[in-house]
Amino acid sequence: MAIAVFHQIKGALTSLNPGAVREDADRVVRISLVAASPEALGRMETFFAPPHFSMERRAEAVRLLVRGPALGCDLEVYDSALLRPSKSFSFDPDAPDDCIRRILKKREDLMLPLARHLYPFRKPAAHKIIRAIAKENALFSLATAIPDIVPSLASIPWAVGEFSSDTAFLTMNQIRMAFQLAAVSDRPIGYREQKSQVASIIAGAFGWRALARELVGKVPFGGGLIPKAGIAYAATFAVGLSLERLYRLGYGFTRDERKAAYEEAFEHGKQIAGMLLDSVRQRKAV
Fold first, then answer.
1. Which spans in 144-188 are helix H?
2. 226: burial class by Cβ within 10 Å (0-12, 13-18, 19+)?
3. Domain residue ranges in the chain
4. CB–CB of 80/90 below 8 Å?
5. Among 4, 13, 51, 61, residue whose Cα is nearest residue 178
6. Alpha-carbon distance 92 to 68, whole Å?
7. What are 197-227's pLDDT values in tens digits?
8. How many CB atoms lie within 10 A of CB 230?
9. Which 3 state secondary structure label does DSSP give 83?
10. What is this structure's pTM?
């Protein structure tokens, strides 16, 4: 059985293209900064291109920042003291991270290149990726058992074709997450470049699979589906957090830290699965 699942995972990985992730992340993005004074403009530049960077890396970041309104920029960021156009973003020097969150929410298409080139975007982008893919895996785990949920897979637009097992899908999605996390962390992207992380994800897949099957088998009448989806969410979340730390600091979670992250995420994953199942029951009742 393990050999069969391994071959399924190997086949599923052919649908991944780390080169496309690399190409997207390497795009040049330009941000127009508009402020009421040179001092305010300087504060904005310092936030987006922090001084702890090396001179070379900071110069690269500053080249993406354009002083004043300019045509051809991907984003416009205005000092909060100024009136701004509706499609631009407001920068409050007392709460600069709010600007980052709004940009990532409204311009998800720019998330990879923004985070790769501009440091303040990195950690928020990484956590956004981790939460999104963990939720996708929980959804897919339920969808393979409950046909009514299948229409909800429209929320995973990149997932095409059929997968012979949810283990193959979940593993492939975690590896896709690894590529994206490397991208937003300004790390090398690809199977060869990330071979140790990819191997660890594949090895861990069999443990999560065995635990999920055991839970579903022990709880009658499908009651084990919520814990199963919780495992899919928690396993992906714990893997993602450990990878984010590895790319940011050079080392991942210890065994105890991974266990703590998993246990916390497991409860959240069960809540998400419960809400999804409730929505299915409500549709049936109509």
1. 166-184
2. buried
3. 31-106, 122-285
4. yes
5. 13
6. 17
7. 999 898 877 665 555 555 544 444 445 677 7
8. 24
9. coil
10. 0.86
